[in-house]
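*Target chain*
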Amino acid sequence: MAPVRLPADAELPLLRARVSDLADRALVVGDPARAARVAERLDDARQIAANREYHVYAGTHRGVPVTVASHGVGAAGAAVCFEELARGGVTRIVRSGTAGGMQPDVVDGAIVVATGAVRADGVSHQLVPTEFPALATPELTIALKAAAAATGLDVHSGIVVTGDMFYPSDVITGVDLRMWQRAGAVAVEMEAAALFVIAALHGIETGAVFAIDGNPLAAQDETMDGYDPYREIVTRAVDGALEAALDVLVG
């Protein structure tokens, strides 16, 4: 079945943006407030839609039209955003978000560029078989690594784990993060696998860059009791990841 493309005068059902207002390049973030912060970096920025967790902005960066959209927390809701952007004619999507480090040297304030994602989410398995890989576009990944390195922050790249659980349970363990750590996964987050799969199904370019705001495998972080993503060291990494994502989006 060919990917769906909506006409220019259509309105996206859940994003509530008009197709004609979308650029062919989109930066996606989880937090609506972060989407608003990104819009402040754009020229000629304007909000074109706001519905539920989906806040959408239009503007230009370095003279290139871009769309910025928030997708909320978790792969299922984020998949709605990614799918509707693709149906609206977007041909390049870069995600910028936060993630937990999974290797001892991937610590608070670092940046991770994803090469691909472990599909430990729930939604991607309803789109393609388990054997289908969730991969970022190689050219965008290379560009994101270079752009992130230019910020002067500590940069890592590799496989990230996409899972649905944020706070741990003392009943069952959920995704076996220690196993994925041994396999070499560098970070854990909640949406990249869905993005990579949907992008592949639509034949569009995609990439993802993350600011590290903790390490769920560190002894002090296992219960998430002290989780605080609002520290200055994390804010600097978030800004660096957004800068890299915007530059690669229009490159």
Remarks:
- The longest helix spans residues 232-250.
- The domain at 19-250 is CATH 3.40.50.1580 (Rossmann fold).
- The mean pLDDT is 95.
- Residues 105 and 156 are 9 Å apart (CA to CA).
